[in-house]
Amino acid sequence: xxxxxxxxxxxxxxxxxxxxxxxxxxxxxxxxxxxxxxxxxxxxxxxxxxxxxxxxxxxxxxxxxxxxxxxxxxxxxxxxxxxxxxxxxxxxxxxxxxxxxxxxxxxxxxxxxxxxxxxxxxxxxxxxxxxxxxxxxxxxxxxxxxxxxxxxxxxxxxxxxxxxxxxxxxxxxxxxxxxxxxxxxxxxxxxxxxxxxxxxxxxxxxxxxxxxxxxxxxxxxxxxxxxxxxxxxxxxxxxxxxxxxxxxxxxxxxxxxxxxxxxxxxxxxxxxxxxxxxxxxxxxxxxxxxxxxxxxxxxxxxxxxxxxxxxxxxxxxxxxxxxxxxxxxxxxxxxxxxxxxxxxxxxxxxxxxxxxxxxxxxxxxxxxxxxxxxxxxxxxxxxxxxxxxxxxxxxxxxxxxxxxxxxxxxxxxxxxxxxxxxxxxxxxxxxxxxxxxxxxxxxxxxxxxxxxxxxxxxxxxxxxxxxxxxxxxxxxxxxxxxxxxxxxxxxxxxxxxxxxxxxxxxxxxxxxxxxxxxxxxxxxxxxxx
Length: 529
Ligand code: MSP
Known about the structure:
By secondary structure, the protein is of the alpha/beta class. The protein has helices at 22-40, 56-64, 69-86, 100-116, 171-180, 188-199, 228-238, 249-253, 269-282, 314-321, 323-333, 344-373, 391-408, 412-433, 435-440, 444-465, 470-479, 489-495, 498-501, and strands at 6-15, 44-52, 93-96, 119-129, 134-136, 156-165, 185-186, 205-206, 208-209, 217-218, 221-226, 261-265, 291-294, 297-299, 302-303, 340-342. Helix content is 48%, strand content 15%. The structure holds 5'-O-[(L-methionyl)-sulphamoyl]adenosine (MSP). Residues 12-15, 23-24, 26-27, 52, 232-233, 235, 264-265, 267-268, 296-297, 304 line the site of 5'-O-[(L-methionyl)-sulphamoyl]adenosine.
């Protein structure tokens, strides 16, 4: 295993002030797809997720319920774990910032930065948004001193002694870094945002709070509590520790550092693309490869929010439609990086069109024809005998590479669209070639060539979509006679390696086809819709 290429990636560590919402589910689904794709390539992947449990926001939520913060966090965390299970997320590490070993990592990291001379005491005055856990510039505020992100919440005035991190010192280094590593912040629009923010001049930021005890004490001054973001970002490092390893930076950084990809929403870009690299530079550590800031989800065109009463409950969605459906919709319908909308009618239409009709029916009708016209056997075909002008072969031969590039660029919608081109071409090919007529005319060889081409195309489509719809892909593979379950990633990486299975022409006449069964049941719109 050790010679395999490694790929470590993270979701944000989610605040536990409330149960998970669809925004957190969105990032986590995308992260799971990336990890699954890496494993399909035969790489070793480490998917990190977890929870961010300190700070004023959590402390107040706990108070609101009359609970101690720890008790409150312990009660919310299982709702994340069970949602990830429902969504078929195969994460490797779940990092909780209240873990004892996390404190050891934070302490060691703080000490390194302290030694560098990048932490000093000063007076912090300004407007603070507890929901963002961030100071805001006066010019950013909405009327009535409301936060631009949490528009119903008022910011609070602070005037206190804090410890500061010397962010300003890293201005030029950061600018040089963005120049030399243009792929560090993605997509390009977010990179421009960050660069223009940094160009305006960086100010030191406070990394401690007084009058707050829910967090780690500042190692050099326990009267102060460490700022929640300073501690949270380091949760990524703690997550790299092997479960039984002693919590030291050396142990945490030995195998998986630097992290290859941080997946986040656009609202927390500054923390990941400015503060985080500067903190790492100060501690003398290598920087992550990439930070990708995705867009925001809206519902029926409206910003989702508790106050507008239009939140989308991810648990209900998965329970109603299944995990593959939810995963597919969000990744196929929304260009990753841009904002996107959820609308239930559209959701149902997309799933019915792509998964039930185009893909599901294609497999079903083809398997039935194979039963009828080929005695249920995969036709014996010499691949070279299929002319390169065959439309399915022509598309199929390049598809693996094309889809690989799309996954690597996190262009999930593009990956799905490219696969659908093959699926739709296959439906068209059957209709045009009409194997039922060819059969009646006694053209058995032609019948076999058509059916082989279509079956093989369904297989390839299932393989390439397996990171997104692992259950459906496994079902298709099983009906095609492969004993492969894409949820068993070690097994599928060995039995169905990308180098062979992403090509066109893999299906062999030795396969024992299974019984045709619908792979995705058409969704009937609810009566009151
Ligand atoms: N705790 C911090 C992250 C610390 S990482 C070291 C945090 N947590 S959060 O729970 O508030 O947000 C987690 C993620 O959810 C963010 O990436 C945010 O962008 C995302 N989303 C929150 N609402 C969203 C939508 N409506 N749509 C898409 N993503 C959204 O921030």
